[in-house]
Amino acid sequence: MKKAIITGPTGAVGVSLIEELVEQGIFVTAVCREHSARLDQIPQGPLVQVVECNLDRLMDLTAKLPRDYDVFYHFGWDGTYGEDRQDLYRQTKNILYTLDAVHLAKQLGCTVFVGAGSQSEFGHVEGVLHPHMPCDPDNGYGIAKLDAGRMSRLECAKLGIRHEWCRIISLYGPCDGSYTMVMSGILKMLRGERPQYTKGEQVWDYIYSKDAARAFRLVAEKGKDGEIYCLGTGKTRRLKEYILAIRDAIDPDLEIGLGELDYYPNQVMHLEADISNLTRDTGFLPRYSFEEGIRETVAWMRKKSR
Questions:
Q1: Residue 299 phi/psi, 5° resolution?
Q2: Above 90 in pLDDT, residue 305?
Q3: SS3 label, residue 160
């Protein structure tokens, strides 16, 4: 792998993946939406090229980029949070954008297409998430992700491109959205506020963005055509333990309101990734403990907040 192209490069996974690829001497073209407010999050350097292009204009890039790329990473998605997840027209367009990404990959010479899926594809499930277990998504976002993965797999097979789909279970790290449990908690604690939580009895599997980025690189290098991989650590802790680790990384004396919020209706109490096929095919194993990753994330947020 000498050249890679990435859509949706300004989030936690995209930024970490660019850093991972650059460390390996790989040239990266980062495709961002026009006038993105998060352009400054993209790493700079001679091996990074930034191109502004909205998802509905991806095919315009066939006339602007050379045809010598190896891997296409498709992370770009419109409507990832809150009520936007149930905007069915908006979510359906994402499937078309994913198919456009496949055809752009073909035009640019890519032999590998790697897509970012989600645990939402599984629907309301409890326990260990296996890559090929039945999926029954219960929101527009999850349905669209599932269909995008399936359809892009078929299109890649038609075009002679190797296809892998990575379902991210629960991820944290620098550049992640402020609405997540981890990032919202960090922000409140850094402001000296007292965040409120449920009892935190949920059993969860959090992967650090740098570990996820390495997994994405290894999947492009060694993954099997048509395979689905769950991205996680394969290890779990209770949510309470993660919350306390965040608190300890900021100020062990801070008060936090564990048990002050009710669980959501039909609260999922156990999410865990089965990474056995990921490890078997690529050799991936996580390197970061949650404590190590959260210290780096807190340091990034402190610097950003200055």
A1: -60, -40
A2: no
A3: coil
Beta carbons within 8 Å of 23's beta carbon, 6+ residues apart: none
Query: In 3D, which of 230, 231, 216 has the Cα closest to residue 6?
Result: 216
Identical fold between 3-170+207-231 and 175-205+235-273+288-305: no
Question: What number of other Cβ atoms are within 10 A of residue 43's Cβ?
Answer: 16
Q: Could you give the CA distance from residue 232 to residue 216 in angstroms, rounded to a whole number?
A: 12
Q: Which fold has domain 3-170+207-231?
A: Rossmann fold (3.40.50)
Angle at 25 between CA 8 and CA 39, to 5 degrees: 30
259 Rama sector, left if φ>0, alpha if ψ -120 to 50, beta otherwise:
left
- Domain layout of the chain by residue ranges: 3-170+207-231, 175-205+235-273+288-305
Whether residue 142 has pLDDT greater than 90: yes
What pTM does this model have? 0.97
C-alpha span between 166 and 282 (Å, rounded): 13
Q: Is 251 exposed, middle or buried (0-12, 13-18, 19+ CB in 10 A)?
A: exposed
* pLDDT greater than 90 at residue 4: yes
Has residue 1 got a pLDDT over 90? yes
Higher pLDDT, 239 or 266: 239
Could you read off the pLDDT of 79-111 as tens digits, one per residue?
999 999 999 999 999 999 999 999 999 999 999
- 175-205+235-273+288-305, CATH topology level: UDP-galactose 4-epimerase; domain 1 (3.90.25)
